Each structure stands twice: as structure tokens, then as C-alpha cells.
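Morning F.,

Quick status update on the modeling queue. The single chain you submitted on Monday has been processed. Sequence for confirmation:
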Amino acid sequence: MSKTATVALAPSSSLFARFMAAVDRFLMASAEISNHNGDLPRFGL
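C-alpha cells below.
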């Protein structure tokens, strides 16, 4: 028996959730670029 459990979440299709996901992807990409350049990433909006 597996020691891990998976939870299947229904995809959120609301406009606000899509917007927040897009902002999250942008901030994560910005943090990754800063990390590759050796800078400290700026968190938040």
C-alpha cells in the first residue's frame, strides 16, 4: 500500500481564479529569472 495519497481537485474556471493563476505564473517566472541572475527575487505585487 502506498504511503502517499493523491487528491484530484476540480479545475477552477472562475475568472478571478484564472487571473490569480496568471499572476502566480508571472511572479514565479520573475523569481526564477532573478534567481538565475543571482539577484534576490522580489515577492508580492
